[in-house]
Design brief:
The chain has 332 residues and is mainly α. It is built from 13 helices and 2 strands, in the order αααααααβαααβααα.
Length: 332
């Protein structure tokens, strides 16, 4: 095993990522075999793949955003409700107040960014615990979204309508000839944010904050700016995630989004991001999102309720955190 790990190609890709890709492939064939054994419809269809990808698009943006926050040693439990709040406000403006679609898409991103600014200011400048801050933001997002739409659900335009062109961001065409534009955009975004995290001053400072915040501060760096930036990016990406959510599922209901927090965080931890901060992988997060999406689709394909996914996701998080702790102990 050590010989395999030391292989130049393996070291370049990353042993953890290779394992995750193997798990993803194994899950796909395992669910296919289980569905066949249970007499369910075939899992090996393009429709199943597209269904899983619909879930991965918005989850990917949520997970990339929270990766930056976790890299600082913080946490953000508001991303799911913030995504729904962004979709509700911008959707209500579009369908009830006749605001142009492009403006509504921008508003969705702005709403998410505002929540990121609030979280970043409270955590970085007022030294409030990120856990408490994000819990408060979660409740605010739920309340604001619900109040703005008068507790009504919002249905964005269908692809057949004139204002439905935004759905091309998720998929162009139907059937086997459809182009999964959402996957392409998510992959490009992952590359861009991986470069930001690993190759820029901002990304290096964010990672250093998670490793030793006090040492960074004593070196003369204003740590508040970079810590706040992580939350701002997280909020902005939650606003973008809202666009991809409505592009895939159209209807948004007030007071929801909590469960997506856990799944986004699970994707990060599974992908190699340390809950203690200082270590993060956007590529790992991307693969983790695909695994969560495949898990969700496989459980539904077998006819089980979504509750089973929560159980398995919880187990995955526990195992991933335990592996992270063991890894840190070995390094120390």
């Amino acid at each position: 095993m050590e010989k395999f790990k030391q292989n130049p190609i393996v070291k370049k890709i990353g042993f953890n990522r290779i394992v995750l890709i193997g798990v993803l492939i194994l899950m796909y064939f395992l669910f296919g075999a289980l569905c066949a054994a249970m007499g369910r419809a075939s899992f090996f269809t393009l429709a199943r793949v597209y269904s899983a990808m619909n879930y991965a698009y918005f989850m990917g943006f949520l997970a990339i955003g929270v990766t930056f926050v976790i890299a600082t040693g913080g946490i953000d439990f508001s991303i799911g409700p913030v995504m729904f709040c962004s979709a509700l406000i911008s959707g209500y403006m579009l369908t009830k107040q006749n605001v142009p679609l492009i403006v509504c898409l921008i508003v969705s991103i702005i709403v998410g960014t505002i929540f990121g600014l609030i979280n970043g200011y409270l955590v970085a400048y007022l030294d409030m615990p990120s856990f408490i801050t994000s819990m408060a933001s979660m409740m605010l997002a739920k309340g604001i979204g619900s109040a703005y739409t008068k507790t009504q659900s919002v249905s964005w335009p269908q692809g057949t309508e004139a204002a439905g062109w935004y759905r091309n961001l998720v998929k162009i065409g139907n059937g086997s000839a459809a182009i999964p534009t959402g996957l392409i955009i998510l992959a490009i975004a992952s590359i861009i944010f991986a470069i930001i995290l690993n190759k820029t001053k901002a990304g290096r400072y964010i990672l250093c904050l998670g490793s030793n915040k006090e040492a960074v501060r004593l070196s003369g760096v204003d740590v508040r700016i970079w810590e706040a930036l992580a939350y701002i990016l997280c909020g902005m990406l939650a606003g973008i995630a809202a666009i991809f959510y409505v592009g895939a599922y159209t209807t948004v209901q007030p007071g929801m989004g909590d469960t997506f927090n856990n799944e986004a965080i699970a994707s990060c931890v599974m992908g190699g991001t340390s809950m203690s901060g200082g270590i993060a992988s956007i590529a790992g997060t991307f693969i983790g999102v695909l695994i969560i999406a495949m898990l969700q689709e496989g459980i539904l394909a077998m006819g089980f309720q979504k509750d089973y996914q929560f159980v398995i996701t919880g187990i995955i998080v526990i195992l991933a955190v335990y592996a992270d702790i063991r890894s840190r102990r070995r390094r120390n």
